[in-house]
């Protein structure tokens, strides 16, 4: 297992009196999908008032970051054009920022133009499922705004020679893109991309070897919430996967993941608090 060393402690000044501290405890990122077709909550938060109410509820339950997205990335998703994505996300970002001015917001997009406008509207972090490889301008936007950028692993096809070394090599390539564009090293976070271009067995293997990723020294975000491989193990519907998600979260924290992206904030916050107490007692 991989306890968090002190050098992982980082404080981010995100502007407007918004700060974020890593390395003291596991951070909870609450998912806010402003989409009609996301796999577990599509259509619930497309109206601004509903989105703000859900954001407020997640913060009250323990969310440290809110991740707002306007395009579903479920298997077989239909791509959304830039104008439609902006129509979905910008009013939500502005309203959430006004209602919760001290809560960091991440924008879940792989389009540089969407990321730029989201940052202008009040977002603080870029969450890119294509690891800066989906849009050649994304890294430059992250560098220009000096914001943290979450680099997720992804591929167009599952064509690995050796899963974990290949995932690490792909992430190294994305980090190099960030560095070449001028993104500061301490602004780079990594995400193993559970569920993206990976089979059931790939996901389980990668989860069991997360310490090889966290050993690279970058903050690691884990996003397993309600994903298909959990449904396959438990044979349960998507809305009944909190225990399975909690198991993956506890394992991820034990392997050194510092942020977890989830739907069920209240239950996973409790899971993280208990896991942190076991692993990192005495740290402050």
From TrEMBL:
<comment type="similarity">
    <text>Belongs to the DHPS family.</text>
</comment>
<dbReference type="InterPro" id="IPR011005">
    <property type="entry name" value="Dihydropteroate_synth-like_sf"/>
</dbReference>
<feature type="domain" description="Pterin-binding">
    <location>
        <begin position="26"/>
        <end position="274"/>
    </location>
</feature>
<dbReference type="InterPro" id="IPR006390">
    <property type="entry name" value="DHP_synth_dom"/>
</dbReference>
<dbReference type="InterPro" id="IPR000489">
    <property type="entry name" value="Pterin-binding_dom"/>
</dbReference>
<keyword id="KW-0479">Metal-binding</keyword>
<dbReference type="GO" id="GO:0004156">
    <property type="term" value="F:dihydropteroate synthase activity"/>
</dbReference>
<dbReference type="GO" id="GO:0005829">
    <property type="term" value="C:cytosol"/>
</dbReference>
<dbReference type="GO" id="GO:0046656">
    <property type="term" value="P:folic acid biosynthetic process"/>
</dbReference>
<dbReference type="Pfam" id="PF00809">
    <property type="entry name" value="Pterin_bind"/>
</dbReference>
<dbReference type="InterPro" id="IPR045031">
    <property type="entry name" value="DHP_synth-like"/>
</dbReference>
<keyword id="KW-0808">Transferase</keyword>
<keyword id="KW-0460">Magnesium</keyword>
<comment type="pathway">
    <text>Cofactor biosynthesis; tetrahydrofolate biosynthesis; 7,8-dihydrofolate from 2-amino-4-hydroxy-6-hydroxymethyl-7,8-dihydropteridine diphosphate and 4-aminobenzoate: step 1/2.</text>
</comment>
<protein>
    <recommendedName>
        <fullName>Dihydropteroate synthase</fullName>
        <ecNumber>2.5.1.15</ecNumber>
    </recommendedName>
</protein>
<dbReference type="GO" id="GO:0046872">
    <property type="term" value="F:metal ion binding"/>
</dbReference>
<keyword id="KW-0289">Folate biosynthesis</keyword>
<dbReference type="GO" id="GO:0046654">
    <property type="term" value="P:tetrahydrofolate biosynthetic process"/>
</dbReference>
<comment type="function">
    <text>Catalyzes the condensation of para-aminobenzoate (pABA) with 6-hydroxymethyl-7,8-dihydropterin diphosphate (DHPt-PP) to form 7,8-dihydropteroate (H2Pte), the immediate precursor of folate derivatives.</text>
</comment>
């Amino acid at each position: 297992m991989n306890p968090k060393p002190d050098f992982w402690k980082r404080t981010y000044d995100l502007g407007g009196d918004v700060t974020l501290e890593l390395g003291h405890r596991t951070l909870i990122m609450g998912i806010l999908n402003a989409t009609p077709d996301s796999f577990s909550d599509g259509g619930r938060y497309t109206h601004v008032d509903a989105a703000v109410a859900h954001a407020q509820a997640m913060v009250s339950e323990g969310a440290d970051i809110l991740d707002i997205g306007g395009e579903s990335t479920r298997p077989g998703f239909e791509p959304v054009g830039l104008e439609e994505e902006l129509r979905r996300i910008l009013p939500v970002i502005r309203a959430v920022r006004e209602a919760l001015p001290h809560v960091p917001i991440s924008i879940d997009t792989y389009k540089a133009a969407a990321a730029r406008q989201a940052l202008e509207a009040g977002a603080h972090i870029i969450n890119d499922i294509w690891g800066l490889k989906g849009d050649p301008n994304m890294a430059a936007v992250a560098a220009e705004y000096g914001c943290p950028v979450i680099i997720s692993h992804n591929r167009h096809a599952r064509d690995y020679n050796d899963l974990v070394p290949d995932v690490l090599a792909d992430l190294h390539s994305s980090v190099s893109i960030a560095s070449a564009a001028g993104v500061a090293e301490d602004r780079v976070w990594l995400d193993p991309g559970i569920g993206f271009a990976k089979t059931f067995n790939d996901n389980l293997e990668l989860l069991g070897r997360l310490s090889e990723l966290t050993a690279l020294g970058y903050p690691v975000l884990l996003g397993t919430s309600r994903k298909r491989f959990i449904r396959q193990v438990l044979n349960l519907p998507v809305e009944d996967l909190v225990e399975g998600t909690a198991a993956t979260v506890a394992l991820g924290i034990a392997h050194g993941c510092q942020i977890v992206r989830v739907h069920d904030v209240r239950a996973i916050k409790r899971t993280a608090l208990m896991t942190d107490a076991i692993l990192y007692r005495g740290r402050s």
